[in-house]
Amino acid sequence: MLHYKAFTSAVCNDDIAALEQLVNEWLEHAQPYVHSMAQSQLGEHLVLSFLFEEDDARDMRKATAVAVATPDIFEEALRDAELDPADELFVTLLPHAELPY
Fold this sequence. Notes:
The chain contains 3 helices and 3 strands. It is of the alpha+beta class. The model has no long low-confidence stretch (mean pLDDT about 80).
C-alpha cells in the first residue's frame, strides 16, 4: 500500500541541514521503499514529499509465497519429472511472413 509523507523546512526554522537530518533519520528508521520524491515551495518554506511503501517483511514473504506457489494439478504432474535445466531446449522457428504494410 502506498503512503505519503511530507517534510517542511518550517519545522526546522528553514535550516536545510536540519531538514536533511530529519529526512535521513526517517529514511534510516523506517527504511521505506520510496516510489517518488518531489520538492516544492510553500510560501517561503521548502516541502519534500515522499510516496512510499513500508518495507514489511511479512508482506514480502506472503507475496513471495503466492508468486511461487504451484497449483496442485502441476504439483502432481511434476512429481516424477526430471527437471534438469541442462536438457536440450527445443526451439520452434516460426515461418517468415511478409507484413501487409
